[in-house]
Amino acid sequence: MQVSTLVQLGVTGLLAACLPLSMVWMSADANKYRKLVWVAAFLCFDLIVFGGFTRLTDSGLGCPDWPGCYGLANPFLAHAQISAAEAAMPTGPVTVFKAWIEMIHRYIAMGIGVLILTLMIKSWLQWRRSQNRAFAPLMPTLLFGWVCLQGAFGAWTVTLKLQPIIVTTHLLLGLGLLALLVWLGGQEDNILKPPQPDPRPAGLRQVRRLALASAVVLALQLFLGGWVSTNYATLACDHFPTCNGHWVPPMDFEHGFTLWRELGKTAAGHYLPFSALTAIHWVHRNFAAIVVVVLAATIWRAWPHAALRPVAKWLAAALALQALTGVATVYLSFPLAIAVLHNAGAALLVLLVTMLNYKAKYQLAAVHVPSRQAAAPASLQP
After folding, report:
1. Is 317 found in the same domain as 253?
2. Where does the sequence pass through the membrane (predicted)?
3. Residue 374: pLDDT above 50?
């Protein structure tokens, strides 16, 4: 790829970041750093949803090289190559429409990379000046390393031709980036306005444990959901609650859950049997019941606590929506809008479970600080 193309792509990434950076700079919020964190989190959520749209429209190879499109900076410049590929294979992965979807996805990702780089630079500069814990650079530096790793998996997604484990890891890293940004935003919120001690602190420790358990089971379900999507196993079960008319249909777990293999192939290079796709779908569907139980228990325990109740309400609504869209995807034979909404629901669950975790953590800290302060004078007595 020519240097001029790389420069054009870099300029495109800067332009994609200009609008959100301008909004942060011109906002009335005095804490521009905190504002930038939450803007980056919002755009990361949007990128995950658009990434789902890219995957579900089979646009992941709309430009079959990386980081440009046929070695050029945008589909306008590569129009001749794209048209030739489309003419040679009209039902193939390369079309003008798919090329634009894929490149817009990359442009947004580059813009978020610029925002996170800005966060890291600002945090280091402010930290060296003031040592203010609001600008502690550890998390922004971790975010920058994370987004670089995410970019590498984005490249491998294309160069390894949508290999399922690579695409699934790319999805999970995107959701992890969202969780880290939300956690950093929560830290900034609590530094700006420290939480008041909960008047009913007795159950907070249990809420914290359940919130952590919710994060673990949700992460497992996200892997399973990504594995369904990247193996195109969404319609491997065409009934609900049974699968193809059976509670336990014929399944091939060995080939279905062999991680390192090509798309649609076994590790030996043979075509993946349908029973393997059935196993992938069936496991994701049944593990969803465990996720619902654990998250419902977490919501129930968090509800009595005033500081946690708003997040618990949103989490309950998101969980119900996710279950509804999951069932609708099967009943309606995979309509694109419902499938994208299901993908967005997964990102929303990540956001809300992360928020619940940090709020429970800081509520516990707010309870412990006054108790330690109250105990300190007594410890100094002879």
Report:
1. yes
2. 6-24, 36-56, 104-125, 137-159, 165-186, 207-228, 282-302, 314-334, 340-358
3. no
